[in-house]
Amino acid sequence: MINPNTARHGFLFGDDQGPWLTERLTKALTRETSIRIGFRMTCQEYRHIAIAIDRKFIRGIVEEADEDEEEDDVHDLMAAHSTKLATARYARMGGLTRSLTSESIDVFRSISDKWQQWYGIVSRKRDEVRNVRSNQEEEGTLRDRVDAAVKDLWGPTGTFRNPQQEEGVRRVVDGESPLFVILPTGVGKSAMFLIPAMLKDAKTTVVITPLVALAEDMLRHCKDANIDCIIYGHVQPRMARIIIVVTESAVNSNFVQYILDIHLKGRLDRIVFDEIHKLVKDINFRPKLEQLNQLSLSIQYVFLTATFPPTLMSTFHKQMLIKDPIFVRQVNHKPLVRYEVRRLSGDVKRETYNIIDTLVKQCQELEKVLIFCKSRTECKDWSLRFECGAYYSDSSNKAQTLEDWMTGAFFATGSLGAGVDITGLKWVIHIGCPYGMINFDQEVGRGGRAGEVVTSMILISNNDYIELLSDNPTSLPPDEAAMREFIVGMGCRRMRLSIYMNGDGEEVNCEMLAGEVCDICLSSRSLYGNELVKRRREMDEVEVREIKKRR
């Protein structure tokens, strides 16, 4: 219904400036129709659909106009064209049915139903989209088949790792959509598409992932589970239980047609977006997200990630036009991570080298130190100094380089931040301020997968720290503002991280968690430590005032 309080300007699509231009109208139409009817409608398509609606519901079903008829129907004149042009050009079917109209198809459909009834066969049924299977007997059988798939995947004694993983899998199998599953790193998000694909009646699941390394890792998991799987672009396109595609290929017109063909054959179960936070957050992936939204297929959509703070949801809503999502979230406070920020003064590079060198020398057999750098050049330079491996976006033989890393130091950029399993990782170091809290949390999550204690250490120069302290947090994007607060704030670091990552009501500090203690909480346990922290902050604020004066 139109809001009666809305100002009227004489135009259905208009404002104080007059009627909307085609570009603005098309943008509004494509956005709203994708949300509300699952079909992306352009202005050109609207012209045809509006006339078809007029013929069927406004003027009623009438005989088609004779092409030689001179008198124009008032409905066609109101649409700014003649009846002859409307009959010849608008609201007609294309392809094999181009000689048919929507009215004649309605008539033919009813006749076809009568023939089927006379033959005693089941007549046409209206297609219905079901979000949840309703038959109790079917649900019981389905539950048993899911349990059997769990045993096939993880062995005779295999079980779900936690209630949220089980809930996520069962909601996927039940067809609930759109579904967000947010599970900590290492908990097994891949079960969300592996187990449904192992069911007897499973069709095709498309998994869209942002990184090639993740695609290859998924392929390995599928092969281990004996699931028919391909990576699109690596082999000749064909039908498979799981089709993995990297984001760049997913927006290719050939791939879109390939998926549409599978969908039209009734063989497409769902599309799964892996590491969805990267599609939303990273500037390189954001345009791809908007293009992927144009698929608008009436199927199940599943979104997987380990890090999706509530503040990202509004951005995601805007880009994917998702309505009323269902959430399965396991809050993870990383109790085995010890957070520390270390300020460096004097020769920053020498201090950085000495700290990393000390940690490397402390490594026992198969223990590792992972150091994140902010640029590829920095990453290569440090790896040469330590004569160790490096991992960045266009480095060669990534998988082999990781496999060769048995102990000691390893340098990387954020390219290593998602979905890469690393065993024996005891220290995660960041040289300089991380780009944002989401990336930082993902990168720290590379460690501790086997239950070992991990130390997260940010090495930041004193000058950079003061500059960060002088920044106005309200002028920064939420993710950067949260990272700033984590580094320069006075309270428990874990508390600030958990507030941003998990939202109100889910925050914890080190004392509440009874886990590893951050450097600030450790200092606060002694009167001397508290005094040192306060004095240093007073000195910092003097420097901040000087910086602001110079600005």
Characterise this structure.
The chain is α/β, with parallel strands linked by helices. The chain has helices at residues 22-36, 43-58, 74-78, 83-89, 102-119, 136-154, 163-173, 191-198, 212-224, 247-250, 253-264, 276-281, 286-292, 313-320, 348-362, 376-386, 398-404, 437-444, 462-470, 478-488, 493-502, 510-513, 519-524, 527-550, and strands spanning 14-15, 18-19, 179-182, 204-209, 229-231, 242-246, 268-273, 300-305, 326-329, 337-344, 368-372, 389-391, 408-412, 425-431, 454-461. The protein folds into three domains: 42-119, no CATH class; 136-329, P-loop containing nucleotide triphosphate hydrolases (Rossmann fold), CATH 3.40.50.300; 337-550, P-loop containing nucleotide triphosphate hydrolases (Rossmann fold, 3-Layer(aba) Sandwich), CATH 3.40.50. It contains 24 helices and 15 strands. The strands form three sheets. Strands 5-6-4-7-8-3-9 form a seven-stranded parallel beta sheet, sandwiched between helices. Strands 10-15-14-11-13-12 form a six-stranded parallel beta sheet, with helices on both faces. Strands 1-2 form a two-stranded antiparallel ribbon. β14 (425-431), α18 and β15 (454-461) form a beta-alpha-beta unit. α19 packs across α24. It starts with 13 loop residues before the first strand and ends with a helix.
